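quick one before i forget lol
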Amino acid sequence: MQLYIGNKNYSSWSLRPWLLMRHTGIPFEEVRLRFDRSPDSHFNRTIAAISPAGRVPVLVDEGFAVWDTLAIAEYLAEKYPAKSLWPAAPLARARARSLCAEMHSGLGALRNAFGMNIEASMGEIGRKVLAEQPEAARDLARIVDMWERQFRENGGPFLFGAFSIADAFFAPVCTRIRTYELPVSAPVAAYVERTFALPAMQAWVNDALAEHDFIEFDEPYRTAR
């Protein structure tokens, strides 16, 4: 299988399936494409040839393309049932799907205000945005409450005990909490650190830091130096 992804420093959507596959030992070939919005860019031409959606990530298995992170996660869960990518218990599995769907289609104020930017450190921006954008502050409060409830119900160390698709889906939020120094509770902060301690997550972060690629449209708070 080939997994087409964007820049590791910026592409929160790409991180989800990459982390899921790398952490659980699902073999794949990484195809990294530099973000470029120009109409005839290598990025646009390559993605358009394999996916009508024109976005990353895209998983290609024997020539068959699966796009959108939820669809990719479900495809992998069916293809590799022994990996237990979803929780085994039906109610826990339904709850995990609910949380992933909420992250996927909601919490837009947080995602829009705090773009993933692993190599940056922007605590001042984080405080300013939370003070000026109540919708982003509400989304952060929802994340904190959601995760704390899961820890109380499942005891950790991850959202449903063992690492699952849900943790892969929220990994980009962990990077945002760190980059923007967002205020969270002690249990949530500990979860962020556990996520960053995963060898697969460390590998992604190291690759992101090695890119040294400033892409202006992904940098709303900074200018090129």
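fyi The chain is about 55% helix and 5% strand.
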